[in-house]
Amino acid sequence: MALKVPAAPFTFVVHALGLVGLILVLVWTIHFRGGFAWEDSNKNLIFNLHPLLMLIGFIVLGGEAIISYKSLPLSKDVKKLIHLVLHAIALVLGIVGIYTAFKYHNESGIANLYSLHSWLGIGVIVLYAIQWLYGFLTFFFPGGSAYLRSESLPWHVVFGIFIYVLAVTTATLGFLEKLTFLQNSGLAKYGSEAFLVNFTAILTVLFGTFVLLSVASQGPSSADDYSYSAI
Ligand code: HEM
């Protein structure tokens, strides 16, 4: 069910939006929220690592990994390697990013896992890890039979898109939740920081949208990309 348009323009928008998203989250966490720390008496600096690592990991690198088959004019094997390595980096950043949220809560005496955002977040990381492991074992090493791979590929694609959409949803809920906490503690509702956080969340949604458009359109060598051995 591919769109009959080339993926390249969509993939360029993905790269550009990823860069802008990274800049926006850095401006927010450094300029408005005081920067980062692993150990500090100001526990907010530990929390700031959470949105940064989640955005770079699950959203930007996860999205780039998904579109690697559509954005790179390389051989299938190289694209497969790039796909799995980008997803592995995304997963590691996601694990460290979620750890920083727990670390911030534990060191500040705040309860864990009380919000919809955190529940969906646990769902995302668990599904992401299962998806990566199954993909690695089936399509890379040791690799399943030709039959298993061709049967698995459509499920891998559908689950991968589902998990990615869930990650984008979870990230936007995170921005909403943090901004609501800040506004309830006195942050101006129409102030520049509130606009910045809302725009970063909108940009996250747009980034995800262009990832999906890239997936649905025609890559450099679409005939190869749809065969089971492409992943
Ligand atoms: C896909 C990306 C994300 C995932 C998977 C995720 C996951 C999680 C998880 C599992 C927790 C629970 C930590 C605990 O209970 O100790 C959490 C906490 C939190 N996250 Fe995220 N997060 C993501 C992105 C973001 C973003 C972009 C923000 C924006 C600021 C954010 C804001 C928060 C806040 C405010 C908390 C503490 C309150 C709460 O537990 O709900 N998250 N996140």
TrEMBL record:
Cofactors (names): heme b
TM regions (residue ranges): 12-32, 52-69, 81-99, 119-141, 153-175, 195-216
Family annotation (Pfam families): Cytochrom_B561
Tagged with keyword Amino-acid biosynthesis: no
GO terms of molecular function: metal ion binding; transmembrane ascorbate ferrireductase activity
Residues in Cytochrome b561 domain copies: 13-216
GO CC field: membrane
UniProt-listed Enzyme Commission number(s): 7.2.1.3
Topology in membrane: Multi-pass membrane protein
Assigned keywords, A-Z: Electron transport, Heme, Iron, Membrane, Metal-binding, Transmembrane, Transmembrane helix, Transport
Location within or outside the cell: Membrane
Enzyme class: translocase
Reactions mediated catalytically: Fe(3+)(out) + L-ascorbate(in) = monodehydro-L-ascorbate radical(in) + Fe(2+)(out) + H(+)
Positions in coiled-coil regions: none
Listed InterPro entries: CYB561/CYBRD1-like, Cyt_b561/ferric_Rdtase_TM
PANTHER family: CYTOCHROME B561-RELATED, TRANSMEMBRANE ASCORBATE FERRIREDUCTASE 1
Protein name according to UniProt: ascorbate ferrireductase (transmembrane)
Naturally occurring in which organism (per UniProt): Morus notabilis
